Amino acid sequence: MKVLGIVAEYDPFHLGHQMMLQEAKQAFEEEPAVVVAMSGSFTQRGSAAICPPAARAEMAIRGGADLVLEIPVQFSTAAAETFARGGVGVLAATGLVDTLCFGSESGDLHQMRRMAETIDTPEFRTALREGLARGLPFASVRQRALEQVLDGELRLTGGANDLLGTEYLRCLPEEMEVLPIRRRDDGHGGAQSATRVRQLLKQGAWDCAAQLLPDTTVELLRQQQAKGCCPADLRWAERAIFYRLRQMSAEQIAALPDCKEGLEHRIMQAAAQTGSLSEFYDAIKSKRYAHARVRRIVLRAFLGIDTLPEKPAYLGVLGANERGLGLLKQMKRTAALPVITKPAHGKKLTGAALEQYLCTRRADDLWGLCVEQVRPAGECWQSTPVLPHRH
What we know:
The protein is α/β, with parallel strands linked by helices.
């Protein structure tokens, strides 16, 4: 049996995600099993996920996934390279996933492989360093460095999914195959759908958002809304975030991952002079510092993430269907990392695994400040994975 692996945020699971799963399955004669490595309470954009991980895992299972595993928060809130390393690391550690599937603007696997190979060359690093020294933004410097080293061979235009796919390839185990799926942008589940859905939900335009979502996702979002848990937004936790930033020294901020080039001073000044996150980000905005980078640094300060691990150290189960339970049974033999099916079992972890697990659970507690109706701390320890009902 083929086992597909997908790295995702599903924030939330929309029609584009559903179409990608269907297309991926249709690439094989026999329907493959699908394992998803999914972000938890916070995402790579430096934002709070729209609703809790358990609800988003259930959306994925109802949409065609079989097993959903957790990406530890240190990876899920990081830039593309570390995010990819965390997601692929989770999938590889199952010992079952044989094919990585991901969305791509181009679908051009050859070009993405060439980019992945080039990024690890001395020539690319030199070109990147020279561009950054001129104070240019990282994304444009990276693209120019690739074009310079590949000398006209590069045909990709730096789409976010192609770049993320390139990072997946850089950390992909040799034995794992790759299946890129061409992303659509037709207004019904395309590349911008998740952003649009979140905007609509936060504006209260639920009927408009529903046009981009499967019925099961709408149902689960409504359930979370009734609990006061959707839509989550960092703005509900603004004062807590500013409290944290104003308590930190320049040295402490500078020690946060990806905080370089004196950015800590701009952060301290903006935190002292602004009263909302939107004002704060506008005060720091420049060509040199991408908004996403600043948001991730601020989120790490809020969550207390001061180091980025090399690889995941546990496999946390967020949900499974009957087929997924069969995969979990196999993982007792194949998994390279401890498999946690109940939060309480996570307390028995040791070393790096325990550190990653506790950091992720603390993030869950802080996510509870990012909703209109504040959630009690400790709820994550009572939660259980989404599993099939058995009568």
